[in-house]
Amino acid sequence: MSSSHQSTGNALDANFGVDYVISYRYAATDKAKAEAQFEKLVRLLVGVGLAVEVRDGDDCSLLVFTKIASERRLLGEVYRSRIKDWLHGIRLAAPEKESQKILSSEPLTDSERLRIVYFLITNPRSEGGAGITPQKGEWKDVESIFPLHDHPFNSEWLKRWSGKMYINTDDLTQIRDRFGEKIAIYFAFLQSYAFFLIFPAVTGAIARYILPKFSSIYAIAIGLWSVVFVERWKRQEVDIAVRWGVRGASSIQHPRPEFEYEKEVFDTVTGEKLKVFPSRKRLMRQLLQVPFAILTISVLGGLIAICFGIEIFISEVYNGPLKWLLVFLPVGLLSALVPTLTAILTGIATRLTEYENYATIDSYEAAMTRKVFIFNFITCYLPLFLTAFIYVPFGSLIVPHLDIFKLTVKPSAKGPKELQTPKGFQINSARLQKQVFYFALQAQVINLALEVVVPYLKRRGFSKVKKLKSSMAARRGGEKPDASINDPPEEAAFLARVRSEAELDIYDVNVDLREMCMQFGYIVLFSVVWPLSGFAYLVNNWVELRSDAIKICAGMRRPVPWRADSIGPWLDSLGFLAWLGSITTAALVYLFGGDGPGPEGTPWGIKVWGLLLTIFCSEHMYLLVRLIARTVLASTESPGLRKERRERFLVRKRYLEESIGEEASLIATAERSGEKIDTEMSGEKPEVKFWGRQRSLDESLRFGKGAISRTAPGEKKIQ
User: For residue range 313-337, what is the model confidence (pLDDT) as tens digits?
Assistant: First the structure.
């Protein structure tokens, strides 16, 4: 047995052979309805070839354990899945039909098995699935569907990665076999990004200690680096997809259960029945993104701008009592209001995306990602934009108009003198560097704690509170007994682990991709302010690569192993940030580089034409470099593309040799039996359809020979 198949078997043995756990919570419904719905759930699961076992869950819930009922059923689904990939061009050759051979050439990985079982549970009944969609429609009582962690593998994975400086191809392949290509390609991206960060880390150290501040040389180097990284990653995605056999997997669009079609039509080419929602109507709904973007910018941007003004006034103008306390007022406002407003706007974005009525899960996620990017762009970069392009260049004009913020500190001021702008006020030109330093260093540490440490402490705290409530209820009596009271002794530890995993949060790889995308933006937009930010992010990402592994293994439920051949819409976000970085960096170098006119808050020396010309030249340099990078990469064939071309050639050659071999075998057999056989396998002389007429092979030959005989030896034209 192969290592991949063996590891799959070990994972199943560690979890009593369970593939998925379905948490069914019946507290919100009456008893008769809950029993009927539960019976329907179980019958549907059994009807698609799954074995079912049920145990008690926590707080009025049931745990429904499922697995493939037979090996024959599993092999059938594997063949159906792989033949679908072949028909969509993902696989180069059709899979073997014999059940004994189907896994011989390509063993079944843990992720492929779990993906197949998940589709059996969730696919519509018209496509052979049970149609179970958690928390939606008739299945609103189905709380979640999740696979179980393979704890022996997780422990070995974390132990191995903790002692390695570099994550190699084999490590990434193991992640792909366990958690699917979508998560594995994120780790591949993070590894590649961390490797590329060596360049800005080294050049940043040179710029910090050798070159002048706001160095144009460093700005050009970072601009070139951003282009090369984005274009190189596009090529690397292709290599990874070819190596894992998922190139073109995005062409298989999984239907979205919530999609509401208006009519069914037949495809004029294929005759296939299609569910259609008018594209014009969807476009009209998508236009609502414009007022939504304006609302987002107004709400979040306005809040950040107001808090920014208050913070400047209190920290740099006000010198009265309680200043040490009042300086925390803007931070408190942002900490309290930004998460709340972001949650509200995210809810609006979700409703808007659902209203746009996308037919597939992939298109829905792409639309949602674009909206989420707007939130993060504002919250991450707006404070730096305000400091760099408003406060520092125009501070002497703005500060006198901050009198409105005196209302925030007037109750604590003893006299009007404490509220007056001090004479000789000077712009704090180091403010921008301190902000970039905060986002590059302190914010990364805080974010790491929020991702790993805080969730761990929260789980421990909730666990202790739960035990305390259970013990108090037991003393009072009359409360629902603990779910583990009826557990068989041999299953007690396993069921306790399952109940613990059921309470964990759902892992979303898009959250980590968003974090890396925003970090890339800090480098290309503002690292010219503090060049050592590249080194700080390099160290952070070495830790991030391992902390994300810990988060997946211990802090989240095991994710469904989705396939992917790219990081999706985040690749477009990287390209946008690289382009914007060419503009922002050029403006910063012009304003603050050398003896630039901006740092002292006196904008009178800024030449608008000079600033616009600098931006224009920088942007066109970026476009030229991107064109050159794409041309160079396109002229060189990547290892993945070479491998794909070689495999396609070998497949064609094998099929050709097999067909010729079969024909030669038939001819040899006929000759041994004394029969005469035509070289055409059908035994009949085919007719050739040419220029709208039917000709037999003999007629075509006679026509050609006659034309040749009528042609004089010296003539070149054949009549």
Answer: 777 666 767 777 777 777 777 777 7
- pLDDT tens digits for range 590-626: 888 765 444 555 555 677 788 889 889 999 999 999 9
Helix H or strand E encompassing 384: helix 361-386
Which region, left, alpha or beta, applies to residue 638 given φ > 0 means left and ψ of -120 to 50 means alpha?
A: beta
237: Cβ–Cβ under 8 A, 6 or more apart, which residues?
185, 565, 566, 567, 571
CA distances 592 to 341, 437, 606, 611, Å, are: 34, 17, 11, 12
Q: What's the pTM?
A: 0.81
**What is the distance between the alpha carbons of residues 103 and 2, in angstroms, rounded to a whole number?**
10
The rounded Cα 492 to chain-centroid distance in angstroms is 37
- DSSP of 336-375: HHHHHHHHHHHHHHHHHHHHT--SBHHHHHHHHHHHHHHH
Contact 251, 88 (CB under 8 A): yes
What letter represents residue 699's amino acid? E
Q: What pairs with residue 50 in β-bridges?
A: 68
Measured in degrees and rounded to the nearest 5, phi and psi for residue 154 equal -60, -45
Please say whether the dihedral angle defined by the alpha carbons of residues 223, 228, 233 and 238, taken in this order, is positive or negative.
Answer: positive
Using DSSP's 3-state secondary structure scheme, residue 66 falls into strand
Tokens in use for 395? 């501070």
Give CA–CA dist 185/642, Å, rounded: 20
Q: Which helix (H) or strand (E) holds 646?
A: helix 639-672
